[in-house]
Amino acid sequence: MAKDELTLTGLWKGVFSYPHSLPPNQFDADLRELGGMIAGETSELARTGQITHAMIEGERRGFEVGFTKRYDAFRRATTPIHYSGALSEDGAEISGTWTIPGNWSGTFLMVRAKPKAVAIERKIAETVR
To answer: What would the CATH number be for the domain defined by 3-128?
Structure first.
C-alpha cells in the first residue's frame, strides 16, 4: 500500500513493555487521522486492576508515527508519555519505543484490529445499549 493511501483511523490492539521486571501490559486504542494529524484514546488494565484511559495526540509522516499519551487519572495526567515508531508498509502494525523523559522507557507494538473483531465489538455495544 502506498504511504499516501494509509490512514491510522480505526481500532488497534497493543502491548507495551516496561524497562524492568514488570510484565508487559496490553491496551486498546481508537485512533483518528486527518491530514497526518492523529488523535484518539486508549484504555488499559492498570496494575491496580482498574481500567485507565488516556488521550493521545500526534502525527504521522509517511511511515513515521509519533504521539504523546496523557492519562485521564489526575495523578498521572501531568506526566506525558512520548511514543515514536514506524508503521509497517501494509499499514497493519506500528512498532517502536515509548519514553517518560528522564524516567522510564520501553518498547510497544500496535496491531490493527481485524474487521471481524470490530464488527463483533460493535454488535455487542449495540446490544448492550
So the answer is: 2.40.128.120
Query: H/E element holding 98?
Result: strand 93-100
Provide the whole-model pTM.
0.81
Q: Which residue has the cell 515509548?
A: 98
Maximum CA extent, the chain: 45
| Confidence check: pLDDT of 103 > 90 | no
Distances (CA, A) of 119 to 11, 33, 51, 103, 123: 11, 20, 23, 39, 6
Distance CA 87, CA 117 (A): 21
Are 82 and 58 in contact by the 8 Å Cβ rule? The answer is no
